[in-house]
Amino acid sequence: MEKRLRSSLQTSAEEFLSSAVKLPFKSSKPTIKTLINTVIKPSSSLISTLPLSLCNSISHSISQIKNLSDSTFTASPVTPPSKRVRRSGRNKKDNGTHRENEREPIAEKLQVYAYILRLCVFHPQNMFSVSDLLPAVQELHDNLILFESDSILLSEIANLCEEWWKGDLLGKESLISQSLPVILSRSLTLKKKVDVHRVYAIRDAFTLFDFEDESIEDLKNLLIRCVISPLYLKTEEGRKFVAFMFCLSVQLTKELCAMIKSQIPFGRKSMLEAYGEIVFRAWKAVEGDCKYEIENGFLQGLIEGAIYASSAALATSIRRILLGFINQRTTEGVEKLIFYLAEPVVFRSLQVANSNVRQNALHLLLDLFPLEDPDATKEAKDALLEKQFFLLEKLLLDECPDVRVVAVEGSCRILHLFWEVIPSPTITKIITKVFDYMTNDACTEVRLSTVNGVIYLLGNPQSHEVLKVLLPRLGNLIMDSASVVRAALADLLLLLNDIRNFHFHKVVHIDVLFSILADDQPVIARKITKLLIPSYFPSKVTEEEACKRCITLIKRSPTAGARFCEFAALEGASLRSQMKLFKILIGLTLSSNKPDEEQIEGLLSAASHLCTNIAKDASFHAALKEELSAKKLKTLFSVASTARAQSSLCNIISTMSLDAVGDLFDECMGLITNCSGLSDNIEKQAEVRSAHKMIMACGWLDDMFEVLVGFLQRAACGCHVNFGIELGKQNGRSANRMKKSSMKISSKLKHSNQKKSYNTDKNKFLEDYAIAIGVAWQIKDLLLSESTREAMLGSGILESAYSALKVISEASFLHCLQHDYLNTYPVSAYTTLTLHMSLQNLETDGSRDSSQASDILTKFSVMCLCMHNATILDQTLDHLLNCAYNVFRANNNKKFGKSLSDTGECQTGTTLTKQIRLSNMVKTLTAILKFIVDATTMNLTPFHYQEKCLNFTTENLKFTITNLKEHSNAQLQFTEEDRKYIFICLKSSFTYGAKLLNVVLKTCEVSLPQAGAQGLVNELFNLIVSVEEFLGYGFAARFISVVQPWVPDLILALGSCFLLKETPDEGLFSDSSDNATLSLPSWFYILARIELSELRDAGSDEETERVRQPKDFSAFKKLVETMSKLLKANNEILDAVGVNFLTGALSSLRSKNFDVVLGLLHFVCVKVVGTEDGEWKELKLMLASLGEIYSKVEIEAEEVDNSEDDRQKLFSAKALLEPVWKSFIYDERRHSMEDE
């Protein structure tokens, strides 16, 4: 190959070029380079002929490409025959492929020519004349647009032009108009740093363009794209180039500024900071009109935008760009510019009525501080500085908490930065206000900012002398109601501990710290531990001394000492020292100098925490077990007389899984069986959980479960005696197991001759029931853990537990409105146990075949309940639903109190007891609803139960709303705690109801229980308006936040009856008409009232006199607005849902409730659909219904029996319908008649 090229080179330039293009380009490049650089001599004729031949060859090849392009343009007729579109399209594609094949070798030739041309231009010995080569390069440059589809050739030519410019060769100005856009576009497309470097290196070439000319638009667009390119913003040379672009043209400067402004709302911090640097660089470089545009157009707009921004986030983003100038204020001219732009607007904005503007202006002032005119006199500067301090002091007491937050943080920041130069009187005034007013502010954020500001201020040593006197005023914040404030003050104390001459105990008394350590949250307690550990468990003294100090702490405050030991390991205490302390604590507990109960609790609790930490290292296990012998443990249990102390021992035993604890079962069970009031006592719950851990670790769970079930059976018998609840039949195996229980229940309780003893010993039943509540809580809690759950579900007495809970739950449910001692926990445990039993059966059935059925029945006695092919879940559902319907029926008939008077009980009682009973009923119904929704979500509920579940949920909501209304009318004064709990139950009821709708809508698309879903969704809306009507706007606003995520499901349920109708068949509206006389949901009336209220406010006639004026219902209005937006987004759903409102209007029309008619029609025609023709075109179902309504409204409006007021309402309704009726229904009927 080299020989052929060498011989052609000696023949002629044309022969050399002809041979070169015939060889593979990539493989021949080294050979061509070698020949041109070494073979050609200064005396060779090629010096003059090769440039000319190159130019001719390039021109010839370009002519060929142009001819191909021209043939492409003329290949197809201007107007191809319509019948031959597809065939001509195929021919066109084939022709295009053919022409591409012809173009490819020409492009390869041009690549070779461009490469040879480049070698000639940059020959090592500069043998070729630049002026001779320029025409060939010019030819390639001028035709760059032809090579857009060939990226390699395009890049080769652009690189040649780029190097020509960098080499400052003759005619370089003529080689940039086409090449620069290519190079710039490549940097934006390939996104490589090297391309950005190339663009920056030839930036001066851009100054040759006339940016005022219209033909420059494409290049301007590429330049503006650089402003939003992440690569240009990240790289130093990219930012420099963007800044350079501001020098090119005033108009381009305006467009660049506009582009930067448009990115501010969406820009990240790094992006905005890059813009700040870019604009500052540009401002320094430009002069004249460009500088004026940056100063008075861009920067002035940013300052005003930072003050009047609609959101704090937007204001922050704008200030990030301004910081590009503010941080360079030492640069000449910057300080003057900032003052010139900001001073007129900042001071004025700090005193306006709008708190958001004041806050934004204050942020800006703090960034600019001190704002001063560098050319002003000293007196003027001092006066301006005094003005800024005055405004800052004023804003410390601003009425808006957000402004106060910024003011206190800003004040501390200014004092930190400028303490040495601020006059002492000014410091005193500011810091006094911070400590006297800000620390006692009603707003949590202000108090938190005060503490954080003081922490920041401590970073300036000059402030320490003053703060040493003032810091004790912050001490009360360690007991602040907000945990974030307490945590911040703990951080402040930790900082003081590291500063010489500061003593944290002078800020907060040590006893107060002990109190916080004992009772506060773990994160705060750990901070206090870190603060105290150098004093009470230091690492720099001997272990004996460290343990002695810790014992002193425990004796002084046992609870605080225990918490201290809990977090000591996390703060660096060694395991060895903890082990020594553990031994000392056990020894002190068993010492002859018997500590009091409180100290024993503290010692054992501390030992429990230490044991948990030490046991993580296996090397200490032997030492721990040696220290905790069986004799010691028994003695420790005898010493630990309180439940808390025994709980700590249980934790120690369960942590170490000790073997020698066989005699401690009774002691441990004492904690578990003493469970009266357990459900409401969090501390006691922790103690019982500790006992559960020990029971599990020792393998006593079956024995414990037998004891607990025994208590349940005793309470169940009491319910049978007192309320006549039927007892379930006992399984023989379960009865035998119960006889073996260490705390077995006498079999006499099962015989009827014990009824008299229960009737005469009411207190005994109350005690048994209270224990049963605690047992129910424990069963539910044990089911949460996988290990205890498996053991319980495998127990042979599970049937007994289920049966007992069933009886107790029935009594608790049916009679909770008559007895305030009845509790909802048995129902909750009953439903939870049912769910887990059902899941266990499902897993068992899936893992074993039918041949193992007998083994399953042996292992899980729960299967004995599956009679008549029914499941546990079916039985529980039937049982609870029957109980619920008895309650609902009695409530509806108002005979519930009478029916129970026969038992000697009555519904009468104090207001407090009525509140308690209502609260218990709401909790119970919520627990049942949760069970139904959970079972349905897990696909455990049979399909035929879905209608029952929907109906129950509907009746539940009706019951809740009715009682809420009755008690509101009776003006029962619920305590705030009761109101909050009832509100939580109402939120749960709504959420569970909406979730049930969601599941049913997903699983029953074909055969949806339409009536149940329609009834439930209406009751859910009724609940929403009832909360606002009876609990007030505060609760309603919070309730709406719960409702919002479920709005799409509510909308789908509203339209469920009509969404499944593919066509508006004839029977659809006849059915609706037949049902039109039924009562409307109450939320329809509220919706109508809201619409009428808006009509009245808009100045329409007073249509609303007959309807009781509603409350404002502001929260419900917001929900309706959300619904309207969602309905407008889908015409099919809008059509199905809108029919409901039109049917409601028709029903109200028949009952002559014209207020509701007008309100609903106004909602549909104004809020949801509108009266434009296009909006109604696809609403087939609504149009069919609207025709009937319009005709009836027209008839009613002419009725002489109606009052003038009613007729006016009807005329208003007719006016709403008439545009739609004329556009669609009337015209359709007229055309139909004409056709006939």
Automatic annotation (TrEMBL):
It comes from Rehmannia glutinosa (Chinese foxglove). Residues 72-103 are annotated as: Disordered. Gene3D superfamilies: Leucine-rich Repeat Variant (1.25.10.10). This is Condensin-2 complex subunit G2. Residues 91-103 have a biased composition (Basic and acidic residues).
